[in-house]
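Ticket opened by: R.M.
Priority: normal
Category: complex prediction / small molecule

The reporter submitted a protein together with zinc ion and asked that the result be attached to this ticket for the collaborator who will pick it up next week. Submitted input follows.
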Amino acid sequence: MFISNISNLKYYKTPTGANLIDIVPYTAGKNDPIEPGDIAHKLVIYLHKGLSQTGEDIICMEKTFKGTRGKCPACQEYRRRVEACMSDEETKPFKVGAWPRVLYNVYDRLKPGDGLQVWNASSFLFQQYLDVIARRSSLSQGKQPENFIGFMDPSLDGRSIGFDKQGKEELTKYIGVHFEERETEVPESILESAHVLDEIVAWPTFEQSYEEIWGVPYNGEVSEASKTASRASKFESKVKEEDIPAAVDEDVESEEEREQRMLEEKLAALKEKKEEVKTSEKKLDSKKEDKKGGTNPCSHGYVFGADIDEKPECDECKAWKDCAKEADRLEREKRK
Ligand SMILES: [Zn+2]
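Result attached by the on-call engineer:
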């Protein structure tokens, strides 16, 4: 996802316990989804999780750039499968993740000697909480500019952001995200070393993403190629692939809306399934049983409680809360 040979690129690894950081603004470059040359403070990147042949994430250029950079081969395949009424199991792996990654330039107030660092954060764990505290008043929901706290301002008018990191890997939580008044400004040297975040990302072309996903070069005909490609050969191609327009077109919004509606229907069905599982007396008490048993509370067939936030489906799973509870229970049991 990142261009590898960038000098002075240090990554911020959230330490367990107290964190206190400043988010440092930068000037957007040519490849920023916001207007190039504008002051930016974050770069939001949507992903198709684990979709490459080697299990790597694929950047969704279509959603990240709101359609202005053309289509995404994974989204195209997702739409094709939905159109062809394929099962959840077959469509979901191609759906773009609901929670994007967010890149920030950060200055660690607890370890200022570490200088400017880049934080590749999960919007699920962090950005959504930051969005809430940045609203001065819940009534206005931050819609009026004067009701928004400009935390990214490098002067004393900005804010440091504190939180506590607890747990690790899939159990990571950032507790108590809050603002703190600054006693000193963000140093000039830190401001100057902020990375133009869109320049450190290896943005893929349509052809590159296509080859990453299918393992064969793009030959201009999506449906034919995906029929012969290793992964797609399992599935019948019923719908003729749409053409690939170079730029945004008007149907992007309605497609999104349709996807949303279909997703809601599917989630409603999942909820029903979950309720059935709840009422059934069969309690699953081991990971292995989860995998084998037909009553796996994880409707995607993963290990309930153990695979939480590891799979692309977790982002929008209605059983997430129950899965998190189970994960906590498993963790407690491990400690005994
Ligand atoms: Zn996509």
